[in-house]
Structures are given as structure tokens and as C-alpha cells.
Write a structure and sequence with these properties.
Number of helices: 8
Shape: globular
Number of strands: 5
Strand content: 5-15%
Strand order of the largest sheet: 2-3-1-4-5
Structural class: alpha/beta
Number of domains: 1
CATH architecture: 3-Layer(aba) Sandwich
CATH superfamily: P-loop containing nucleotide triphosphate hydrolases
């Protein structure tokens, strides 16, 4: 079984992946942040490194999906390949931070890769407003994230909402992060677990 968590920067994907992985005994696959050779450079100069970063993520997540299906295990994945293709890369292109030539090259590669993969059995979308995202980004205190612009987060949120509205390739569960503290409140985590159970197993 392949469960994936989608959401903007700072929405709590990594935290929820770990909590659900522990509860359901799922193997968590986290986003490649600490060993990503482009991330720091990207936040210092988005226009210069946007294409490199997106290709790195595309390759990394494609390998993750291939590995997940090959192992035939129950896995929860922190962020999906679809977010890179439908949200991050188009947003960089629209903001003038990725050239049309690079964006079209990226899209062509994604279309080829997506023909070889299956969507997750359940997509969990963490919906959060900008103040919540900013607060959680500040709390985790990653140096390279201190330069993230509010307009960048806002554009991403708009694209996330449009993508989720049209998502029809599998089961979808939306969690309102503004009103759900699954990190610190066991009752809220229990509510999320009940909703996941209902989507996957029909249990209430």
C-alpha cells in the first residue's frame, strides 16, 4: 500500500508521515532535504538553480516510487512527484524563475516518467493558510528557509488548491492544518488516524 502526503512548505508533511508511519507500521519515505545538493543554492538564487533543483527532485521521487512498488511494502511518502510537476515547476516558470525552454524540457521528462508509475492508494492533503505555514517554518528553524518569500508561498498555495480541486486519480483526504494540531494534540492525531482508517479500510 502506498500512502502519500501532499502540502505546501511547512504544512507538516514530515511530522505526519512519521506519526502515521509509527501508528500503522508503515515505512516512511521522506523528502530528500538534508542531502539535497541544490536546495541551499536554490534559496540563494532561485533563477539560477530552479531547473537543477526540480530535476533533482523529479529524479529522486521517481526513484522513490519505483523502490516503493518494487519492495511491495506499506509505505507513507512525504510529498509526491505530482507536486513537483503541477505546482513547483509551473510556479517557478510563471514567476520568471525558470525559462520556458527548461520548463518544457522538464514537462516532457515528467510526462514520460508518469507513464511508468501508479498514483498513491491514498493522497492526504495538508491544507494550511500562509500564517500557519510561516509559523511552522519559523519553528523548525532551517537557515536556508529564512529567505522564503511570502508571495512565493502564496503562489504555491493557490496552485495546490487548483490541483486538489481537480485531483481524480485516487482517494483523497484533506486535513485542515489551521485547526488540527496532530503534532502536539493526541486527540487531533486520533481524529486524523480515524479518517485515514475510514478512507483505506472503511472503518469509522
Amino acid at each position: 500500500m502506498h500512502i502519500a502526503i501532499a502540502g505546501n512548505i511547512g504544512s507538516g508533511k514530515t511530522t505526519l508521515s512519521g506519526l502515521l508511519g509509527k501508528h500503522f507500521d508503515w515505512d516512511p519515505h521522506y523528502e530528500d532535504v538534508d542531502t539535497n545538493p541544490y536546495l541551499v543554492s536554490f534559496y540563494e538564487d532561485m533563477q539560477r538553480w530552479s531547473f537543477n533543483l526540480q530535476i533533482y527532485f523529479l529524479n529522486s521521487r521517481f526513484r522513490q516510487i519505483v523502490d516503493i512498488r518494487k519492495k511491495n511494502m506499506n509505505v507513507i511518502q512525504d510529498r509526491t512527484i505530482y507536486e513537483d510537476a503541477y505546482i513547483f515547476a509551473p510556479n517557478l516558470h510563471a514567476m520568471g524563475l525558470m525559462s520556458t525552454r527548461d520548463f518544457e524540457n522538464y514537462q516532457s521528462l515528467f510526462e514520460l516518467m508518469s507513464s511508468f508509475i501508479q498514483p498513491p492508494d491514498l493522497l492526504i492533503y495538508l491544507r494550511a493558510t500562509i500564517p500557519t505555514l510561516v509559523n511552522q517554518i519559523q519553528q523548525r528553524g532551517r537557515d536556508y528557509e529564512s529567505s522564503i518569500r511570502i508571495d512565493y508561498l502564496s503562489h504555491l498555495n493557490e496552485r495546490y488548491e487548483k490541483w486538489i480541486e481537480s485531483y481524480d486519480i485516487g482517494k483523497l483526504l484533506i486535513i485542515d492544518v489551521d485547526n488540527t494540531d496532530f503534532k502536539n494534540n493526541p486527540q487531533d492525531l486520533g481524529m486524523v488516524i480515524e479518517k485515514v482508517n475510514a478512507e483505506l479500510f472503511g472503518l469509522f
